[in-house]
Specification:
The structure holds two protein chains of two kinds. Chain A is mainly alpha-helical. In chain A, 46% of the residues lie in helices and 4% in strands. In chain A, 19% of the residues are buried. Chain B has five helices and eight strands; from the N terminus they run βαααβαββαββββ. In chain B, the strands form two sheets. In chain B, strands 1, 3, 4, 5, 6 and 7 form a six-stranded mixed sheet that branches. In chain B, a hairpin with a 2-residue loop joins strand 5 and strand 6. In chain B, helix 1 crosses helix 3. Chain B starts with a strand and ends with a strand. Chains A and B meet through helix 2, strand 1 and helix 3 of A and helix 3, strand 2 and strand 4 of B.
Amino acid sequence: DFMSRFNRTYNSPEEQRRRLLIFRQNLATARALEKAGQGMARFGMTRFSDLTEEEFRAQLLSPMPGHAPRPSALAPSKP
Amino acid sequence: APPSCDWRKAGAVTPAKDQGQCGSCWAFAAVANIESLWFIRHQELYNLSVQQVLDCSRLQVACEGAFPWVAFTVAWMYGLTPEEEYPYTACQNMCEERHRAVAHVQAFQILSSDEKRLAAHIAAQGPVTVGINAKLLQFYKEGIITKNMACNCDPREMNHAVLLVGYGLEKKTPYWIVKNSWGPEWGEEGSFRIYRGSNACGIASLPVTATV
């Protein structure tokens, strides 16, 4: 269902097995999150369900350190 | 602040775009902020070019992330072009300066992290770009990410930029309405809702907005 819905193909049967394991772990995480939310939110299969947390971070996210220097404002005239 | 606010209902928010496999959320969130503010001020809703921001950012690797004010600086220097004239490719290319600009930025400001003041600012002025720890969003489908769930994401670890487009209250749970950049198929038509009032997942840690 996941592979057809999100148009996924894998290079080898080994890779497919590995992705299935990740998928199962992710579904378990999603169920636990949903339980913690006590009915206020639904978590489950998304197009990111075959990615590990590290892969998800690397592909979609980018760190924004809170302690980074913040600019005061734009200068009044353009360079 | 009024009890609720949703700039989508006012037609001030373009449909969610998809950043693909490029860490360009900072550009999407900042451009979405400019799109909405430009509509609120000029009653013209443009899909503006995120690609122009990536290409003209002067960053070494724009797909590895940056802060939203980098995008505001690009918009301030060049003005922003419509998306259809400078389409998104999910990778950084050379800056093309020949395109016409339809929206301009005068300045930007970093806002207070106080969520009541932030809500008042959004209701009065328009959507605001924020950082967030996006850990929980990998499996999000719909509903409100509650305070309990937010215990699983460290508010100090911001790794994604999004746009606060409004707020509300459901079953006594206050929430923010947040526009994401993972396409309209993801979440609630490209958006998600998260608890408002406890800096859930760092949602109020770094609010920043342009002035148009």
